[in-house]
Design brief:
The chain is of the alpha+beta class and 114 residues long. It has two domains: 71 residues, Pemi-like Protein 1, Chain: D, CATH 2.10.260; 37 residues, no CATH class. A three-stranded antiparallel sheet has the order 1-3-2, with no helix packed on it. A hairpin with a 2-residue loop joins strand 2 and strand 3.
């Protein structure tokens, strides 16, 4: 399994929520355990057994929601593939595409580009 952290709509997280700030105090318990406050869990749409990526950045501990994906699907989440997906979405929205009435028409058009 590969892991993907943040930036995905995992647990309801989206760009607007990434800009918001909720502050709660927590205490580190035995075995380094920390309880995430219910307000934060609810706000981010997190549930018991969801996974978090934990890292240190700029002297801060960051907990970031993540999802697990099958290894054979990890290619889809690479930066290069996601960049191409965003470009395709932009092209589609701008009307930069062709429609074909048959596969033969499509193949004929592909052959003309050579």
């Amino acid at each position: 399994m590969a892991t993907i952290a943040g930036g995905l709509n995992a647990g309801g997280l989206n760009m607007d929520k990434k800009k918001m700030r909720i502050r709660e105090n927590v205490r580190i318990k035995r075995k380094s355990q920390v309880t995430i406050p219910k307000k934060v869990m609810d706000y981010l749409g997190l549930n018991e057994n969801d996974e978090l990526d934990v890292y240190v950045e700029g002297g801060r501990i960051v907990l970031e929601p993540m999802i697990r994906i099958p290894k054979e699907q990890a290619w889809y989440w690479t930066e290069g593939w996601q960049k191409a997906e965003r470009k395709a979405d932009e092209d589609w929205a701008a009307g930069r595409y062709k429609e074909y009435s048959s596969v033969d028409d499509l193949l004929a058009d592909l052959g003309e580009d050579e």
